[in-house]
Amino acid sequence: MSTFPYRLVATDLDGTLLRADESVSDRTRAALVAATEAGAAHIVVTGRAVPWTRHILDDLGYEGIAVCGQGAQVYHAGEHRLLTSLTLDRQLAGLALSKIEAEVGPLALAASRDGLEGEVLIGPGYRVQEGPLPYVPFEDPAEVWSAPLTKLYLQHPTLGDDELTRIARETVGGLVDVVMAGPGIVEVLPLGLSKATGLSLAARRLGVKAAETIAFGDMPNDIPMFGWASRGVAMGNAHEELRAVADEVTSSNEEDGIALVLERLLDA
């Protein structure tokens, strides 16, 4: 076997490493193990905050560094501790929210609180995806602003995700960042924050450079990560915006798209 050409394999979770049932296939697990045995580190880079990521990392036996919260949190899975954590300025976020609602009307709101045990708050009308992830409902909007946050989640009763993201960016682009991270998931983040921010911090800790990194993703929030890494691979199920900037498109998350690429590189 020749030398594996990358020292870091960065993978998104939802729609990328995870299948629809939140499992990782045996084939993909084996390919990641083979890549690490060939000298590469595997790093998870996800939009999920740590509380919604930790159980998946534990199931994988993952003990290294993970980038969570769209880059806001660098988390050491083996030690169960946050290495870095960036919060959203609540005053700016409140201003941004009011400006967006002035353009599009009332929004359904959710928010992710900071910290290892940070709760996800879900407001009236916010559509929650089915699954095991815990959340806390709220009725009084003041609850959202009562503790440090990593992000806000926005939903509109009629606008699609892409349209809501576009309008929000045009309206508040100088105050905060807005990304579309998945179906029904439009997020408000600290200005300048992206997966590339967190990945670059984590890679520095690992002593790895962007030129030594291959990244896998499926949504527009993975675009900065692809811009940072040497090679960006979009899943077969990826959003068209990510496919447009990818170096390669592999099979879907349900069809072992990550494994197909890693196996080819390992056998080269």
Structure, described:
The chain is an alpha/beta fold and 268 residues long. It contains eight helices and 14 strands. The protein has helices at residues 26-37, 54-60, 90-104, 161-172, 195-206, 223-228, 240-245, 257-267, and strands spanning 8-11, 41-44, 65-68, 73-76, 81-85, 108-113, 120-122, 136-137, 149-155, 176-182, 185-190, 213-217, 231-234, 248-249. A hairpin with a 4-residue loop joins β3 and β4. The model has no long low-confidence stretch (mean pLDDT 95).
Whole-number mean pLDDT: 95
Strand order of the largest sheet: 8-7-6-9-11-10
Which blocks of ≥5 consecutive residues have pLDDT under 50? none
Q: Could you say which overall geometry the principal axes of the C-alpha atoms support?
A: globular
Order of helices and strands: EHEHEEEHEEEEHEEHEHEHEH
Helicity level, as a percent range?
Answer: 25-40%
Number of helices: 8
Q: N-to-C terminal Cα separation, in Å?
A: 8 Å
Strand content: 15-25%
Largest sheet: 6 strands, mixed
Q: Which structural class best describes the helix and strand composition?
A: alpha/beta
Number of strands: 14
C-alpha-based Rg, rounded? 18 Å
Task: Give me the secondary-structure topology.
Blueprint: E1 8-11, H1 26-37, E2 41-44, H2 54-60, E3 65-68, E4 73-76, E5 81-85, H3 90-104, E6 108-113, E7 120-122, E8 136-137, E9 149-155, H4 161-172, E10 176-182, E11 185-190, H5 195-206, E12 213-217, H6 223-228, E13 231-234, H7 240-245, E14 248-249, H8 257-267
Parallel strand pairs: 1-2, 1-12, 7-8, 12-13, 13-14
Antiparallel strand pairs: 3-4, 4-5, 6-7, 6-9, 9-11, 10-11
